[in-house]
Amino acid sequence: MTTENILSIFKEIMKVPRESGHEEQIIAWLQKRAAAHNLECKTDQAGNVLIIREASKGCENSPTIILQSHSDMVCEKNAGVEHDFSKDPIVAVEEDGWLIAKETTLGADCGIGMAAQLAVLEDDTLQHGRIEALFTTSEETGLTGAKSLEKDFISGKILINLDSEDEGELFIGCAGGVDTTAVFKYGTVEATKEYVKVLFRVYGAEGGHSGDDIDKNRANAVKILARLLYQIMDKCSIELYEIDGGNKKNAIAREAYAAIGFDRKDMGRVMKVYRENVAATKAEFALSDKNVEISAERIGIEDVDSGKMLYEPVKAIDGNTAALLVYALNAAPHGVLTMSNQIKGLVETSTNLASVKMMPGKKIAVGTSQRSSLASSCNYAAQQVEACFALAGATVRHLNEYPGWQPKMDSHVVDVTRKAYKKLFGKEPVVRAIHAGLECGLFLDKYPDLDMISFGPTLRKVHAPGERLELASLDKFRMLLEQVITDLK
Asked: Which helix (H) or strand (E) holds 122?
C-alpha cells in the first residue's frame, strides 16, 4: 500500500457524486470495485456497504479489524460558482503541499478514509487478519447509516474510524448532538413602491465545521446579517422582502443576504448603521476571519448599462413576522457555551446557528445544531434555542439526535496505535476527545463490545469551499494505518 495509491483512489472518488442522501452512485461504484477485485460485498437497506477481505495466509487466527468511514460528503460552493454536485466531478489542485478544492468542498471528509480502506483491501502484500471495510451513508445529515446498521452486519470487535482531521492526534471520544429547526409562517403585503430598496450581503467568511471550528471565532454570516437588520429596525421602519443565509446544519454560515425597503428620509440613518457594522465586523474578526465583508446594493432601480430593473420586490413579509424573525436570529445563541472541566482545551457544549431559508408555502426555516460531550448539556442547549424561537412564534422541532462516544481508558487498540505512532515517528501522539460528532457512539450502542479509535490525515476548512488535504500528513497517516493493522495481527 502506497500513499500514491491512496491519493489515486481518492481522485477517482472525487469523480463520483455523493451528496448526503444521494449516495446511489458511490454505492454502485463501491460494489463494482469490490467485484473487480473479487471481494465479498454486501449492502443493507440503508445503503451501508461492507466489503470483506479474508485474513492473509498464516493470519487466520488474528482478530478481525473493521475499517470505517462514511460515503457521503458535505456539498458547499462559493456564491456564483457553477457546479452541480449531482453530476460534476470535484476539481482540485495541488499547491504548496496541499490538495485543495478552491471553489467547493473537497470531500476529503471522509473520501480520504474511503480511499485508505480500499487501498488496504486491494493490497496483496499487507499481512493482516480479516478486514471488514464499512462505508456508511448520510453521516453528515444525521448519521442515518450508522443509526440503521443491523446488529449482525459486522462481526469484528476492533473498529478503526478514519474520519478524523488532525494527523498526530488519536481520538478516543466525541460529542453527541441534535439538530433543532424553527419554522415561521408568514403572510405577505404589497411592497411600498416609493421605498428605497437595498440588498445587504455578508460574504467572504471562512465558515468551517460546526464542531471542530466552533471555538475559532469564525464569522457567522447569519448572525452578522441579523445584527445589521436589528440595528436598522431600531432606527426606522423597514420592509423585509427576502432573506437567506447559510446552508448545512453542520457548517458555520459563510454567506447571507437580505433585501429590505425603507422610507427615503431614513437613508442617512440606514447607511450610518451599515457603515458602523462594516467597521465593527472588520475589527471583531480582524485576526480570526479577516476576509468577511458586508456590501449594500440598490435594487428596484434601472441598471444603467442594460436598462433592466435590478430585482424589483413585489411582496414583503408581514411586518410582525419579519420583526420577530430578526429579533430571534439576533437573540439566538451561537458558538461555544461551555468548555470541559475534565479535558483542557476541549469544547464541552456548543450551538451553531446554521441557516435561514425561505420555503414554499410562506414558511421560513431556521436550522441550528447543538453538540456536547454531556447529554444533559446538549439537551439544555437545544432547549435554549427552542425557547428563543418559540417565544418569537415559531414551531420548533428536534431531529437527528445521536449519542456521544465516551472514552475507554483501557482500550487495547488505543494502546497499540499509540505505541505504533511512537515507534514510527519517535514521539508520543496526542490522545484526546473531539467536539465533532463521529459515528462511534452509535456503533457502541449496537455493538457494546467494540474497541474503537479514530485517526486520519490533516484536513482544513472542512465543510467549506477551500477544503484542503495536507499531503505530507497523508503519508504519515498511511504509515500509521499500515503499522496498526500489522501490529494487531
From this structure: none
